[in-house]
């Protein structure tokens, strides 16, 4: 009996080793695929006009671009190819790209007017791209872009890359594959998909178990994390401050009236400004503030994750507001109250009773915005520390690049927390400033062990800054 037991233990141990070997192999293969995808994302032009994926989705700017970032780029940057190449003069609207950070996108077909959209970040795609099965899920595989139909063909993340190359990478507006660009191989699509899915959070937060040390931020959480009238009612569309409905637990499209805001600033700069119809390509003739313009789609746009929102301004699909406070306050507006998303009794009457009308006082807007700023800063800290905890096996050049990216996240956390009307957690901000100074020292360190030792101190300071934002128990 003892002999049989011994043999069974040997067999079990052998199976354990084999299982661990294959798990390690799978992890290594996945890591290699992500690294390959990153290289393609940053460097591959696909034989096009010189742009790469990172031309618009900048690694050091939250995988997006905005007017402030654009203003730092030289005129020779591939982003401005429409200004420098006569054959591509109509590829973008340069004035709107520079002033508003808007990219021209022919989502309704190249035979129809393009629409102007901001560049969405690529964070937390794993948590936010499953479309509502009852609606968009019957038409697209993944909810991508600002209207869930930002990808051609089957609407998948893989095809998103194909659509982006066709739209943004061509040498001429003929957009002929094999002449104006080349399409990615299946292997490249695999790698790019793996890289994009690796970005940001892979899990949702649990706001039911999160409480904050600042009573103002805590009040913002309560206003946000509720579906009751008199609150922000944000939970209905942004469960756990993500991009999923609290009902379907999937990413849905909603008509919130963003395209119907009066005095659209974009129209002051460029006329005629096309109305963005959102999801789909069906022609509508009662679009925009006047209700007399043509657009293509059902006027719905998909819900976006809010954990990463505060440092990825401007907001909404058309970059129409510039701060998280303005984005929250939008839901007080007539444009929202008259939209299908608010479910008004009379869409033509701004004073009409509506099921989901929101009436937030300015102090409540501030509290919700500070809550979102705090969540964003915590995600910045998590991301920054994750980057710095993976420095050990990197070469000096790669180590320095990764420290720079971590520093960008630390700086984002500082700017997000300092960017509100008040600073509810000044001690956390001070610790983040100290961590940033230490990271600069690590960046300039000649020796690997010195850099790692210095970085460990920065990591600890950021962890402490994060902990100070939270309360251990419910207030």
Give a quick summary of the entry:
With 475 residues, the chain is mostly helical. The chain has a domain of 106 residues: Four Helix Bundle (Hemerythrin (Met), subunit A) (Up-down Bundle). About 1% of the residues have low confidence.
What are the key terms here?
two-stranded antiparallel ribbon, Four Helix Bundle (Hemerythrin (Met), subunit A), single chain, 475 residues
How is this structure best described in words?
The protein has 475 residues and is mainly alpha-helical. It has a domain at 364-469: Up-down Bundle (Four Helix Bundle (Hemerythrin (Met), subunit A)). 42% of the residues lie in helices and 4% in strands. The chain has a two-stranded antiparallel ribbon. Strands 3-6 form a two-stranded antiparallel ribbon. Helix 13 (396-418) packs antiparallel against helix 14. The longest helix has 42 residues, at 2-43. The protein starts with a helix and ends in a 6-residue tail after the last helix. The relative contact order is 0.09.
